[in-house]
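Reply to dn_fold:

You asked what the input looked like. This is it:
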Amino acid sequence: MVRTVPLAIRRGAHRVDAATPASRDRAVDALRAFAILGVVLGHWLVTALVAQDDGLHTASPLRSMPWLAPISWVFQTLAVFFLVGGHVATRGYASARARGTTYGQWLRGRLSRLFRPVVAVLALWTVAATALLLSGASFPTVHTLVKLALSPMWFLLVFAALTAATPLLARLNPLWPLAVVLHVDLLRFGLGGVPSGVGWVNVAAGWLVPYTLGAAWTRGELEGRAGWVLLLGGTAATAGLVAWAGYPASMVGVPGTAVSNLDPPTLAAVTFGLAQCGLALLLRDRLRRVMRRPLVWAGVALVNLSAMTVFLWHQTALMTTTAGLLLYGRLPGLHTAPDSLTWVAARLAWLPLFALVLALCWAAFRHHEQGPRRPRNRPSRVIRLHPHLPAHLHRRPHRTRAKASRGA
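and this is what came back:
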């Protein structure tokens, strides 16, 4: 198997592996990569753009085939991302304080790395939406495309707000925001006449639960049996809420349904996130062993290096493919109603093309996240495997005649 990998890729992988400090927890990077790729694949599998007479409209196979809800259990991985985000931010802030970095400097560094890729997305879709409207595209189509393209922004806003509040949240017990989610849902679903806007409190409280779990991980409070408690307790609570309290089984939003577990987050989504966080904690040691393989580690490092670019552009890749191929008629799995297993099979066949278009977007816009390339005559000594981690510097081996003579 290893021999089938091109020599240049193997050498590059070994170089990245050798440049990574032994103190780095590779399981953190693996969990983040899993969370990002889970969101991408989940959206590609359950987001359908159906071509109708007045344009493109969103639909979901989970509406007509609710028995496919387990797909959402696998690919709805935002809780893991917030868990890792809380862990990294808490650790990073503590490291920044130890180095004498001010809160403002630390926050500007993190938010600039988080939002630099956003500028390119907003600029492109402003131009694209204007061009589509001027060329005669229907307003419903343009509205659908722009809404999907900008939908990842809500996540970044919530994540940025929690990041900014990290010094205040570092010691917060996750049970407090969990209690808020519970009481908000009691008001929403248990009492009549409560304003619907009350539910939006859970946008902050719901994602605060895994974020503060990440802070507890940093404090060393999630060792031992904590992972099993979260996994089993979260699974039992979610199953009970779905079976007896009327919560949807799907852990993603389904267009046309009365209640969504994500818009805003419900108690079921939060307890499901607890189960995911518990599983993530239980897998840490196994992930660390797997990440010792240079090829696997290099792949994870690549995903982490462009995490925000992949996240922000994956919907654009889906829509570019769908809208572009509409010129050839209504194709199964792209423009047809997602109401049969035939559609599911066709959608699976389109995934490699989505990935190819996303790779083109990555090549075009990754510099907004990673920064400009260095001139070729100035080889970099630094490899930063992920811009949202604390500033670990990964130095390449640098040979000099003096070192060679000493080694001899």
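The longest helix spans residues 103-134.
Hope that clears it up.
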